[in-house]
Specification:
This protein has 928 residues and is an alpha+beta fold. A hairpin with a 1-residue loop joins strand 16 and strand 17. The longest helix has 28 residues, at 227-254. It is globular, with a radius of gyration of 27 Å.
Length: 928
């Protein structure tokens, strides 16, 4: 059978999955009849054997919805009309979803009921097909019966990478094509002008406005600066591209290419007219820029920080206002959960004793730099404007959604004496998934795991012969904001004393209606002004002088550099120990936390090019674009600088356990985003894993159960609600409405405070009323607790730095609502510290005053009861207003996870879990 194809981009992409009532069932059947006979690729069964696997059958993984992300036009039409699924399009979705109710009875023997066996190779009785792509004799692609994962085995390096490219295109061609257009800011031209597509391309292109020459220069520099490994990476990439393009040619001539090309007007279903453009090497950099921006570029937000600091100083005066701001910022909160918890300090981006070079804007002078010019038609209507505003806010925020977790336990605490890891990235939920599974075996490469579609020349997260690795987003600050003083006009600036013209980079896009996207004709130009200090993001005045605020990212113009680290991770002759693992990930400039486990050791390392800042520069705020405040040894032409040494990055080997859920890495190591305080979703893992380790005898099942239990927990209920109820119950609750609400909340809390179905598949939450009450109450109580004391202006400014809530039903992160990932950003730490202070309990790193009810238990109790009564009176329809998937009042549906359609194949929604999208459970039994 030919491999089938997917659809467009992030939560935002409109293409075939959303075509409007598009064909009646009868006409679908008629059309399908003429499309069911495309030529198929030859496939023969053959066995892949594994002699280099040291996991002993104890490596497992899962990646919903399924490996197959390609669908022919006929398969798309069948799915749209009858809900039928192409083979292997969703066979991992059910096991993934079932863990939510099945984890309580999990044993080591039943792990693979919910996960795939991730052993190397395919046994003879499980081989579904074998393909020699393009007739090559130096590589085979074997697919297994259960999941259809490609197992690529090459006898030459070129053939191995050719096979990886071919398999990637088999499984994700349409998605790869979409994302190369996202990276180039050309989604609307390629996939249609829906406002969601407009917002998507604007969000990414604003921060990475590269020309073709820029993309090529990044490749040239990465190769030139990395010796033989750089040359090998280039050869691997070219072989990979040759495989991708060979599949394009084969599927085009055989007419089994992704059906989305027809639905978006790129191919004709009758004549086969039209072309699918070959991939070129600069497309890989465009793809990498999207992934890096989504998951691996911490920092930014300095202008918003400055605005809230000015608001605090306006209310309290400079000295006290600064103290208030620092308390809410929680740069180095002593109660924050840490990944490296042995007390070692890794100072970075700390508040300088004597700040220098700050360039705070004059009050009210900040305006956001426009991106869109010359809009016509649907490029400039109200929907387009709303999409642009959202994209701008997301692009400029420091609150990058991390969405990944890790639980790693040393062998000293396990039943077997071998380390155990349960870890993976939370990359959102898409159909097809952004990641794809594969196994690659060839000269210098031996790995199985997940890679981002179009970048799968190496496994990016997975396992090697006797080790496994994974990552979470770290978010340390590698982005700084500079105030460039304008001269001559608004498009010239002072660069080291010389009035210099800004560079102008433009992307002109136009679109027209297609079957997939009926958005009317429209167009616009995206225009970015670039300086030596990065793209212009805001304009303002500082002390009356006109300035442009620019953002300089250490990974800007270096999107390709990380390929070397991934190459090393796949090389069994390189990674042989925790030390060599750490050495490999030091070559990755994305801001990630990396975790490692083999049969004896565990390890951790925080990656990223952390610039060495000039003495006195505070990374939290904009600074003047002057030589005295530039990064140490910064070279503008190449955007290189001196970076903090590897030893200064949080790192560790063989700590008793590691947890990470995008929390603070270590003592004195500041991250760019707000919210690393006393209550963080990392606590959900910390509390469970610490308890397991203390008891000893940890197993794969018990560690997986800890992850799954945390995945259903409501952070507010588990870590904040007990103290809220303590205040309320400080005297008898006489109001009947409030009393009933308290009883429901207490009952839910006693049951564990989980958001879980009554029974598997019931689509109704146990303790549904209590969950509804807390969802309604939280925003009301936060506002009533803090706004009177802070004042409206400062409260509003702080909510721009840190949103007050991130419940499962909220629209948040790069995937909007129904995204799974929840409770990363919110005011739970503020509420926790304030309520404990009001109760007279010990608080380290407390807020500067008691806010709730003026700081008294009685006053605070009145505020809490008043807001609780209001919340209890809100109906489910008011709390969960409904959307295009869910009816108003459907609580379960509002929380549920949706595989966002990026192609023509749709899947049903599943019950909420807050867990990695791709996930491994590993315990190696031996070592080379």
């Amino acid at each position: 059978m030919p491999r089938r194809t997917p659809r467009t981009t992030l939560d935002r992409l409109r293409t075939p999955g959303r075509f409007p009532g598009f064909l009646k069932t009868a006409s679908v059947c008629a059309l399908i009849a003429g499309l069911l006979s495309p030529l198929s690729q030859a496939a023969v069964a053959a066995e892949v054997t594994a002699t280099n696997d040291y996991c002993g059958g104890q490596c497992s993984d899962i990646l919903p919805p399924g490996e197959n992300g390609n669908a022919t036009l006929a398969q798309i039409l069948l799915n749209q009309a009858f809900g039928t699924q192409p083979e292997h399009a969703e066979d991992q979705l059910g096991p993934y979803a079932n863990l939510a109710k099945g984890y309580s009875t999990l044993t080591n023997a039943t792990i693979n009921t919910f996960f795939n066996d991730a052993s190397f190779g395919v046994s003879a009785d499980q081989v579904a097909s074998t393909l020699s792509p393009a007739g090559r004799t130096d590589v085979t692609i074997v697919r297994d019966k259960k999941t259809g994962v490609p197992h690529i085995t090459g006898t030459t390096r070129y053939g191995t990478e050719f096979g990886a490219g071919y398999a990637a295109a088999q499984d994700r061609l349409w998605l790869m094509d979409v994302f190369r257009h996202v990276g180039r800011g050309q989604v609307t031209t390629f996939a249609g002008g829906d406002p969601s597509n407009q917002g998507l391309e604007q969000q990414f292109w604003r921060n990475a406005p590269y020309t073709e020459a820029d993309l090529q220069a990044q490749i040239d520099n990465a190769v030139a600066n990395n010796g033989t490994r750089g040359q090998q990476a280039l050869a691997d990439a070219n072989a990979y591209l040759a495989g991708v393009n060979a599949y394009i040619d084969a599927s085009d001539s055989g007419r089994y290419f992704p059906g989305e090309y027809v639905l978006t007007g790129h191919k004709d279903s009758i004549t086969n007219a039209g072309t699918i453009d070959h991939f070129k090497i600069t497309d890989l950099v465009a793809l990498a820029s999207v992934i890096g921006a989504l998951f691996g570029s911490g920092g930014g937000g300095e202008v918003n920080n400055a605005i809230s600091l000015l608001a605090a100083q306006e209310k309290y005066g400079v000295t006290q206002g600064t103290q208030v701001w620092e308390a809410f910022r929680e740069r180095n909160d002593p109660e924050a959960v840490l990944t490296v918890h042995d007390g070692e300090s890794f100072p970075y981006a700390a508040k300088p004793a004597n700040p220098q070079g700050a360039a705070l804007p004059d009050a009210g002078s900040v305006t956001t730099e426009p991106l869109i010019y010359d809009a016509t038609g649907t490029g400039g209507d109200a929907s387009a404007s709303a999409a642009s505003a959202t994209a701008t806010a997301t692009a400029l925020s420091s609150a990058k959604r991390g969405m990944s977790n890790a639980l790693v336990v040393s062998g000293s605490a396990t039943a077997s004496g071998h380390p155990i890891a349960v870890f993976g990235p939370q990359t959102g939920y898409f159909a097809p998934q952004l990641l794809m599974l594969q196994e690659i075996q060839g000269p210098g490469i031996s790995a199985r795991g997940a890679s981002f579609a179009g970048l799968s020349m190496y496994v990016e997260l997975g396992r090697g012969q006797d080790y496994s690795w994974s990552a979470t987003t770290s978010g340390q600050d590698i982005i700084d904001t500079y105030a460039v003083e304008l001269c001559q006009d608004d498009f010239h600036y002072l660069y080291r004393g010389v009035c210099t013209a800004m560079d102008v980079v433009e992307q002109k896009n136009a679109w027209k209606p297609t079957t997939a996207d009926d958005t009317a004709v429209g167009s616009y130009t995206m225009r970015v002004y670039r300086t030596k200090y990065g793209p212009v993001e805001y304009r303002a005045t500082v002390g009356g002088k006109k300035v442009a605020y620019t953002t300089l990212r250490s990974s800007f113009m270096h999107e390709a550099d990380s390929i070397i680290g991934f190459q090393m991770l796949n090389d069994p002759d390189y990674v042989k120990s925790p030390q060599t693992f750490q050495s490999a990930v030091q070559h990755i400039n994305y801001t990630f936390n990396w975790f490692y486990a083999d049969s004896t050791h565990t390890a951790y390392y925080n990656s990223g090019d952390n610039p060495v800042r000039a003495s006195g520069v505070d990374a939290e705020f904009p600074v003047w674009a002057q030589a005295a405040y530039e990064w140490k040894n910064w070279v503008p032409a190449t955007n290189t600088a001196e970076y903090t040494p590897a030893s200064a990055h949080p790192n560790s080997i063989d700590q008793d356990y590691y947890i990470s859920w995008n929390n603070k890495q270590a003592l004195d190591y500041s991250t760019a985003s707000w919210g690393d305080g006393s209550v963080h979703r990392g606590n959900l893992l910390e509390d469970r894993v610490k308890k397991l380790v203390a008891a000893g005898g940890v197993t794969r099942a018990s560690l997986t159960k800890a992850m799954a239990d945390a995945a259903l927990a409501d952070l507010r209920a588990e870590d904040v609600l007990p103290d809220l109820l303590k205040v309320i119950n400080s005297s008898t609750v006489t109001d009947t409405t409030a009393a009933a609400a308290v009883t429901k909340l207490q009952t839910w809390l006693t049951a564990g405070g989980k958001r879980t179905e009554t029974t598997a598949g019931s689509k109704t939450y146990a303790d549904a009323d209590a969950i509804r009450i807390l969802d309604a109450w939280w925003p009301l109580l936060v506002k009533a607790e803090f706004e009177p004391g802070l004042g409206t202006a400062l409260y509003t400014a702080f909510t721009a730095n840190l949103p007050i809530d991130e419940a499962p039903s909220a629209a948040h992160g790069p995937t909007g609502a129904h995204a799974g990932s929840s409770f990363q950003y919110g005011w739970w730490s503020y509420v926790d510290k304030d309520i404990r202070a009001v109760l007279g309990e010990s608080v380290q790193g407390g807020l500067p005053q008691k806010y709730c009810g003026g700081g008294t238990v009685t006053g605070c109790r009145d505020v809490l009861i008043s807001t609780l009564k209001t919340a209890a009176g809100l109906t489910a329809a008011q709390v969960y207003p409904g959307d295009d998937l869910c009816a108003a009042g459907n609580q379960w549906c509002a929380d549920s996870i949706v595989q966002r359609t990026l192609g023509g194949i749709k899947h049903g929604n599943i019950s909420w879990q807050n867990r990695p999208t791709f996930q491994q459970v590993v315990e190696f039994t031996s070592h080379r």
